[in-house]
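Researcher: Let's run the pair from yesterday's discussion. Sequence first, then tokens, for each.
Model: Starting with the first of the pair.
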Amino acid sequence: MTETLYCYVHPNRETSLRCNNCNRPICASCAVRTPTGYRCRECVRERQKTFETSEWYDYVLGFIVAALLSGIAAFLVTLIGGIGFFGWFLIAAGAPTAAVAIAEGVRAVTKRRRSRQLFITIAAGVVLGALPVILFQVITQNFFGILFQVIYLIIATPIVYTRLSGIQLFR
């Protein structure tokens, strides 16, 4: 006769699944499918923590470097905005280049340490670094300047995040 197992999180649910790491019984709603089998949420969380290596000061340094470099890039976008129609092409080519420079600058300062919260903090630094230039554009009522800044941020922010986090859109 086999023993009836109950989920360790939901004691009233019968199950036949076990976590392949800690061997505790888990129900289907608690099971997380991994390439090596089903695991409980606690084991998955513990495994993810091993990849989070950032220190508290990485948040501060990463934010400051991202904001400073983004402010410089936003200023350059303002200069490009005065060129006219050709400026659209320069923004389309320059924003990804600026994003790579920002990501590599931050990566050098944080010594390649990583965590999801760090990447979000750095993305916020990119946006807030461009804010003074955007506010100047709003005060001077420069519509195209604001538009160019928005295009810069729409292109640069996700590139910085994906470059730091290692997300690969194409393999």
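Model: Moving on to the second of the pair.
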Amino acid sequence: MFCPECGAEYREGFAECADCSVPLTAEMPARAMPDDEPTVGVFRTADATLLPVLKSVLTAAGIPFSVQGDESSGLFPFGPAQIMPDSNRMGAVIRVPKSVAEEAKALLESELPIVEDGEEE
């Protein structure tokens, strides 16, 4: 259980935050994207199946993010089509506040399977 105001974590059985006097929620509250801080792109993908996983990882870590282009036709169910001449411009970009960019990159890299050339996954 978590306080939606201060983010404090409570054991099961508690219903209200002792500090904020608000009802607890089952999930960790996401940090809001700051209005006054620039955002940077930390990951690009055209794989519509990977994007929800990445969003979940960032949400679980409490890292605020936005996704630019996830509603576009640049997402494919199984990654960008091989015949697309410029697939690097296709897809969605995950953006985070500049102050947490390195943390977000490290987290996403640690969660993604890295396959070296010639190795099977």
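Researcher: Give me one sentence on the second I can quote.
Model: Residues 1-30 form one domain.
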